[in-house]
Design goal:
This protein is mostly beta strands and 218 residues long. The protein has helices at 99-102, 198-217; strands at 7-13, 21-26, 30-34, 42-47, 59-66, 71-81, 85-90, 96-97, 107-120, 123-139, 142-146, 157-163, 168-180, 186-193. The model has no long low-confidence stretch (mean pLDDT 87).
């Protein structure tokens, strides 16, 4: 659930491709409360002087800037608009993490994945018995991978199947960092994705966003 205390500021924009800014407000200039629509919507109330007047029922986009750095867009619509008060219903069941920020926001994870093949120095090895590894953290650009007894090196290209709860995702990832402990033992591998498609990116974005929402609730 959105909390005003976690928001740095918000912007109200036109919902068209131009996304013209209508107004901006800090968290001291607005309040949030449950909407009376009977759904999980939030009512945004902005009070002031000289506010822009918008016809009731008009669609707008609300961009929420969280203090933690994310930007979230909510499709919304106007219910009350005067020069002193603007009420907007935010459809909080349809959030969209803005791509510029969501790509590099990292969340902790506990997801299994399968290593199907390893490519090293131009040679590809397909594993007869694919190795099972565990993803410990994740963002849209890559993962941190843990696996016992594997002979992996920096610059290895891994073909992975990531086992999400609702679907499996096949993706290539290059090892860019081998992490070791004080004794020199390998504790994991930092990997970046090399063939991220818009569809796969959206799958990762939804997972990252869901974890963020769960963290906010806590």
């Amino acid at each position: 659930m959105l909390s005003r205390e976690r928001i740095l500021k918000l912007e109200i924009l036109t919902p068209d491709e131009a996304h013209t800014k209508i107004l901006s407000a800090t968290n001291k200039q607005f309040s949030l409360q449950n909407s009376s629509t009977g759904r999980a919507d939030m009512l945004l109330i902005i009070k002031g002087r000289g506010l822009p007047e918008i016809d009731a029922g008009n669609d707008v986009d609300v961009i929420v800037h969280m203090k933690s750095g994310e930007r979230i867009r909510y499709p919304s619509y106007v219910t009350v608009s005067t020069e002193y008060q603007l009420n907007v219903v935010m459809k909080t069941d349809k959030p969209h993490m803005m791509q510029e920020r969501r790509r590099y926001y990292k969340v902790e994870a506990d997801i299994n994945c399968i290593i199907n093949s390893i490519e090293r120095n131009g040679s590809k090895i397909v594993l007869e018995n694919p190795a099972v590894a565990q993803i410990k953290d994740l963002n849209i650009g890559g993962i941190f991978l843990c696996i016992c007894g594997a002979d992996l090196q920096k610059s290895d290209l891994l073909m992975l199947t990531i086992l999400f709860e609702t679907k499996n995702v096949d993706i290539a990832a290059e090892i860019i960092r081998v992490q070791t402990n004080a004794a020199g033992d390998v504790t994991g591998y930092g990997c970046r994705f090399t063939n991220l498609t818009p569809t796969v990116e959206e799958t990762f974005a939804k997972y990252v966003f869901r974890v963020q929402l769960d963290n906010f609730k806590d």
